[in-house]
Amino acid sequence: MSKISKLFKGGGSAASKGRGGPSPQEALARLRETEEMLSKKQEYLETRIERELAVARQHGTKNKRAALQALKRKKRYEKQLNQIDGTLSTIEFQREALENSHTNTEVLKNMGYAAQAMKKVHENMDLNKIDDLMQDITEQQDVAQEISDAISNRATFGDEFDE
């Protein structure tokens, strides 16, 4: 089956039809194949345009009818080429959108995975216990500061007295 008939007749794998649609990778591969096929057709049309232009120049004023026919064919080929350009642009836009969607889906899956991991880590933590622990740490830091202050002050024997 040719690439074009696969594209338009929906010739895909049975697995992708059973799932309700193709995977992003399958769709991207098909879009790339279509882009490649259209690019080849573009090259073919460009060579045909050059050939028709050469024929028109060759006949020039000697055989106006042949020159005009060549120019008309050239114009038709140019029209087809413009259509292919538009189609390629649309396919490229769709491919980029699909790639972005696939990337966003993967990012979302990974964020969900990370959220589950955080939830599992926080299962064993109790907010009240954490608050009590933080208060204990603050109290111990205060005690350590008082000790440090007491050690760092000069010993003043007799300089200070209590009234």
UniProtKB/TrEMBL annotation:
Membrane-topology descriptor: Peripheral membrane protein
Annotated compartments: Cytoplasm, Cytosol; Late endosome membrane
GO term, biological process aspect, one: vesicle budding from membrane
Annotated keywords: Coiled coil, Cytoplasm, Endosome, Membrane, Protein transport, Transport
Chief place where the protein resides: cytoplasm
GO cellular component terms given for this protein: cytoplasmic side of plasma membrane; cytosol; ESCRT III complex; late endosome membrane; multivesicular body
UniProt-listed InterPro entries: Snf7_fam
Pfam families hit by this protein: Snf7 (PF03357)
Gly residues biased stretches: 9-21
Disordered: annotated segments: 1-25
Family assignment from sequence similarity: Belongs to the SNF7 family.
PANTHER family per record: CHARGED MULTIVESICULAR BODY PROTEIN, CHARGED MULTIVESICULAR BODY PROTEIN 4C
Protein name listed in UniProt: CHM4C protein
Organism: Ptilorrhoa leucosticta
